TrEMBL record:
The keyword Iron-sulfur applies. Pfam families: DUF362, Fer4_10. The keyword Nucleus does not apply. One of its GO terms (molecular function) is metal ion binding. InterPro entries: 4Fe4S_Fe-S-bd (IPR017896), 4Fe4S_Fe_S_CS (IPR017900), DUF362 (IPR007160), Fe-S_Ferredoxin (IPR050572). Keywords: 4Fe-4S, Electron transport, Iron, Iron-sulfur, Metal-binding, Repeat, Transport. This is (4Fe-4S)-binding protein. It comes from Geothermobacter hydrogeniphilus.
Length: 376
């Protein structure tokens, strides 16, 4: 059975992190199982945008520091990299405190500027473009932050690997998937299988609830998770915060497509007991689609009633234009204020994810609201 390890960790004190990481990895064989002397090790944290660690938007820098030191102690040659959703990689890494950690530990920063096509045999997506730094590494360690996600429901191990796609290639994939969340989730799963991290370590000490992944609320969870399979880790992460596969698209599609490790009974849990770590009042993101399973003609006719859409908060918007620049279907324009063409909007919520001021809310259609209230 695939093993997922859990470890309680109440805060980000360096000494506490070091001890907790060693305990977390012990059931998996320790860091030496994954990192051998002379191997090129790439750590892939969440570097969504340049916000301070207390906002819970990015992987906490002290978690990154501790994993760097563990990998270096095992003889690994360590790099740290990601492709942020908004801003230059160096600026984002500096603002969230991770670049300072990289410099202090002597690791290398990998800004993910170059891509290389990768052929995926047997998948729906026959070719994916992945950062060259990912492909050049001998060992990939995935370091996600546990957060809600407006489009996918939850972002953790699988979704974090979307950062392996460089820069503006991400909006192209959003556009290719359109409003089909199942299709987008399948792409994320196939991408995770191509990247194939040796190890995933989840920062769930302080996670994010509500309107994640960029504008939600920090929530203390008090845990670290680790495992070899990103799908298995996400299954446990979902259980940890009380979410089900029907609320998390990558989990749902993994289960429905017959992938392994999507049910808790398929997993061997190690370390601290899941029951003692559960986050009982975790607040998911608003539901954004109630049309799954309906015929296409009904989904089209009832699109506005059955789905949520982004709405601009004019009092908080500073008219920076980031949402307009990064909108995959170019459904937004900036004049005196930001306007959204609802006919073109594919409900990917990239605008909400990347807004630096949290000025984009999610408004549910009336049928979707009724569905949420009825618990279906």
């Amino acid at each position: 059975m695939n093993t997922v390890s859990l470890q309680a960790l109440a805060d980000y004190r360096p000494t506490a992190i070091d001890a907790a990481l060693r305990q977390l990895l012990a059931p998996l064989g320790g860091i030496e199982t994954f990192v051998q002397p002379g191997r090129k090790v790439l750590l892939k944290p969440n570097l969504l945008s340049g916000k301070s660690p207390d906002k819970a938007v990015t992987t906490h820098p002290e978690i990154v520091r501790a994993v760097i030191r563990l990998a270096q102690a095992a003889g690994g040659i360590v790099s740290v990299g990601d492709s942020p959703g908004l801003g230059r990689p160096e600026q984002v890494a500096r603002k969230c405190g991770i670049l300072q950690v990289i410099e202090e530990t002597g690791a290398r920063f990998a800004p993910f500027t170059e891509s290389q096509p990768v052929t995926a045999d047997g998948g729906t997506f026959h070719q994916l473009e992945i950062a060259r730094d990912i492909l050049d590494a001998d060992v990939i360690i995935n370091l996600p932050k546990l957060k809600t996600h407006q489009m996918m429901g939850l972002t953790c191990a699988v979704k974090n690997l979307f950062g392996a796609v460089v820069g503006m290639r991400k909006p192209r994939l959003h556009l290719q998937a359109g409003a089909d969340k199942e299709f987008f989730a399948l792409m994320l799963l196939e991408l995770a299988e191509q990247v194939s991290p040796a190890l995933t370590i989840v920062d769930a000490v302080v996670g994010m609830e509500g309107d994640g992944p960029g504008s939600g609320d920090p929530v203390p969870i008090g845990a670290l998770l680790a495992g070899r399979d990103p799908v298995a880790v996400d299954t446990v992460a979902g259980e940890l915060v009380g979410m089900s596969a029907d609320q998390v698209w990558t989990w749902k599609v993994a289960r429905d497509s017959g992938r392994w490790h999507t049910r808790i009974e398929e997993l061997q849990l190690a370390g601290d007991a899941l029951e003692t770590l559960r986050c009982p009042a975790f607040r998911p993101a608003k539901s954004t689609d109630a049309g799954f399973g309906l015929p296409a003609f009904l989904r089209t006719r009832l699109k506005r009633a059955l789905s949520a859409r982004p709405v601009i908060d004019a009092t908080a918007c500073i008219r920076c234009g980031h949402c307009v620049d990064h909108c995959p279907p170019q459904a937004m324009q900036l004049d005196q204020r930001v306007e959204i063409d609802d006919r073109l909007c594919i409900r990917c919520f990239c605008c909400q994810e990347l807004c630096p001021k949290g000025a984009i809310d999610t408004r549910q259609g009336w049928l979707l609201k009724l569905t949420d209230r009825s618990g279906h």
